[in-house]
Amino acid sequence: MFEVLFYILNKGMKFIESALNRDGEAVFTRAARGLMSLIPTPLVFQVSGLWKPNHVLCRENVVPASEIVAVEETEIDKKQCDSGKWQKMSKLHAFTVHYIKRARNHRWRCSEITFWCIDEQLCNQWIQALKELLDSQKSRPKQLLVYINPYGGKRQGKRIYEQKVAPLFNLASISADVVITEHANHAKDNLFEVNIYKYDGIVCVGGDGMFSEVMHGLIGRIQKDSGIDQNNPKTPLAQCSIRIGIIPAGSTDCICYATVGIIDPETSALHIIVGDCQPLDVSSIHHNNTFLKYSVSLLGYGFYGDILKDSEKKRWMGPMRYDFSGFKTFLSHQYYEGTVSFQPAKGTVGSPRDKESCRTGCHICRQTKQLEEQQKNYGFEHKEVEDEWKVIKGKFLAINAVNMSCACPRSPKGLSPAAHLADGSADLILVRKCSRFNFLRYLVRHTNQDDQFDFPFVDVYRVKRFQFTSKHLEDNESDIKDVGKKRFGQFCSDHPACCCNLANSTWNCDGETLDSSAVEVRVRCQLVKLFARGIEIYKDEAAYNSSSNELLS
């Protein structure tokens, strides 16, 4: 007969005897469950170094097998063996289970439990059974290609990877080939040269700009290998099966925040280790049958484009440049004339005005995937459906198209709170010309719980495709106006005696500038996949604290 020490560092730790998780997946293999039946009760239980005998485990306490990070044999501390009742026992054998522990605000941490017993064979059986269980989870990556931007944000990318991420990858037996980028588009160009198919995923350490570079390289490589011309906007694109992981280390980490719920390197690393998979819509941007860029978060013209253009001249200020340029752009209060035409997303469930946000296991995103698979089975995936187009002309302070909420710590709801990550549509937000005071009211609502679309000068539509052409480009058809523009600049139609209004703005494409007066944008449903699971939702804060490993449907 032997006794087992259940050493636990978290009061919410959950352990299973023979139950199944909600997905019907056994938390331990049959062999492991058989071993569990050999353990007598009562068990000896230790919390924070205090011995508490005769503590019986509850069947409701569960650690899902999918959230075990690693299992390893452990050497017993001699001081522990020589203390108390353990003095009477023979040599102890132990193994440690490293698992995910949930904290507040979607933060994950790697915690551990150590099991002791005097039976070496039993200990080895447990280790073998648990390792076989982890090996059977095919979604977990074994080999990764990592790109680190050493210059992004506060220039902490390399340090963050080496101190916070690499130790976790090593613990989980994940090998990584690391590339330190030396110039712009280094990662993008490299992805066209390396053998990407030997990797289970590609990880970028940096901000949204670094993610965009890796995404463009991956999508471009897949299309090249598939013989697909990206310049043809009507051509369906090949989906990328290789997942992308994001380790946040930049000035802006909007994509990480909107898909994980927090900007935290360790949390993101753990999502990669357990092999999470979150499909993501991507918008392709073309001009005159020429491919320009891809976008996954914000494609903004006017206000957000002007902020980015001005901030690019002030990179020496660091992240503070966005605040300075934002204030300056708000005071300038520029508007732009143009024509927006769009194709409503009729087959999409939900509306931009919904109160429910996209979360883990989102039923709307799942339905979209099911519909896409049905269309593929019946051979309809390549058929171009020409629904009715709507056309809006006017003067706009901002034209924003978002494929996700674009939430961030300063704006927890984002630009469009009900936008979905993988429903095959984008939310098109049109902010018409209004007073500075009203525009300020609109901006302030991004930081509180009020409806930011509840203004007469704001319109929002869920679309599959849209086009924009600036009035300035339309006017250029006249040779006379072209000459006048070159000599005198574009005169404001409302104030002929001044030049207060600029002719064109710049597009803010996921934090990168894009100069084009006319664009065509199409949403590519679930084109890429991330090592993420969407933002998890908990029933309430009390349940969250007391049940930190709650399984989600």
From TrEMBL:
Domain DAGKc: from-to ranges: 139-289
Database matches in SUPFAM superfamilies: NAD kinase/diacylglycerol kinase-like
InterPro entries given in the database record: ATP-NAD_kinase_N, CERK_C, CERK_PH, Diacylglycerol_kinase_cat_dom, Lipid_Phosphate_FormReg, NAD/diacylglycerol_kinase_sf
GO MF annotation terms: ceramide kinase activity
UniProt cross-references to Pfam families, sorted A to Z: CERK_C, DAGK_cat, PH_CERK
Alphabetical list of PROSITE patterns matching this protein: DAGK (PS50146)
Any Gene Ontology CC annotation: membrane
Keyword Hydrolase: no
Keyword entries, A-Z: Kinase, Transferase
A GO biological-process term: ceramide metabolic process
UniProt name for this protein: Ceramide kinase isoform X1
Gene transcribed to yield this protein: CERK
